[in-house]
């Protein structure tokens, strides 16, 4: 299993940790969205593809956007989804 960590504000009950099956990163994110429909719009676009502006870390290492398609998440790994930030 893979642990998914999301910001507390993404869920109504404040839950931040979830479990899903291992696999290609995009599939892990899609599976998480299917299991947690309340988070779907935060991680997937209308086309069902993971949003590229959400930062993704696997085991505390930021996965660059150009490497996400080839990233496979192993059992026991942790995927952290980080909300985009704006500032000025």
UniProtKB/TrEMBL annotation:
<dbReference type="Pfam" id="PF02597">
    <property type="entry name" value="ThiS"/>
</dbReference>
<dbReference type="InterPro" id="IPR016155">
    <property type="entry name" value="Mopterin_synth/thiamin_S_b"/>
</dbReference>
<dbReference type="InterPro" id="IPR003749">
    <property type="entry name" value="ThiS/MoaD-like"/>
</dbReference>
<dbReference type="InterPro" id="IPR012675">
    <property type="entry name" value="Beta-grasp_dom_sf"/>
</dbReference>
<protein>
    <recommendedName>
        <fullName>MoaD/ThiS family protein</fullName>
    </recommendedName>
</protein>
